[in-house]
Structure to design on (197 residues):
């Protein structure tokens, strides 16, 4: 796999958000994140650090309305950047599954970098928000991310009581599943009976 295909940059500007994102699949997980939503920054930093995918994310959104556009549009742009970084998805492990505990909470993510986007999301939160982050936006973020990156993604929150812990377990489970899936395989072949993804 040509290493240059392991980087992706996206700029996306609408009347609601102005986003620039760069990702590098370098196994370093260096995070420079500024979305204007502190808890979301915390979750994206965890996603970067635990996946080993370096992310530079700068977002200006209409937070005077609410956090919806900022979070969903970040998912869109991040998915597009990852899609670019993966190129034709040849030479990668493709699949990843991870169970991640966060204190009393346990989350699981199983995913396939298949070019067949789909999201199954089974997570329940008790409260409306953590800081300026509406917890219902967790599903919207991962749907936007999965559909724009071409990922089949299953996320299940098995149990938990603290919403901060539950959300963080979910983001970290996705991160560790991604870390496995984007890993380069030994022969550079495309893992598919079709020969292409």
């Amino acid at each position: 796999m040509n290493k240059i295909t392991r980087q992706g940059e996206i700029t996306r500007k609408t009347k609601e958000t102005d986003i620039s994102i760069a990702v590098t699949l370098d196994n370093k997980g260096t995070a420079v994140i500024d979305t204007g939503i502190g808890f979301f920054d915390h979750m994206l930093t965890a996603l970067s650090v635990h996946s080993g995918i370096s992310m530079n994310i700068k977002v200006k959104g209409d937070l005077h309305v609410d956090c919806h556009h900022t979070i969903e549009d970040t998912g869109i742009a991040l998915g597009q950047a990852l899609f670019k970084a993966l190129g034709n998805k040849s030479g990668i492990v493709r699949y990843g599954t991870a169970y991640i505990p966060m204190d009393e909470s346990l989350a699981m993510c199983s995913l396939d970098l298949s070019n067949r986007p789909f999201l199954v999301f089974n997570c329940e939160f008790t409260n409306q928000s953590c800081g300026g982050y509406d917890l219902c936006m967790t599903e919207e973020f991962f749907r936007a991310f999965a559909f724009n990156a071409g990922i089949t993604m299953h996320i299940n929150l098995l149990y938990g009581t603290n919403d901060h812990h539950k959300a963080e377990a979910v983001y970290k489970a996705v991160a560790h599943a991604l870390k496995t899936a984007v890993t380069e395989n030994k022969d550079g072949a495309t893992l598919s009976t079709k020969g292409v993804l």
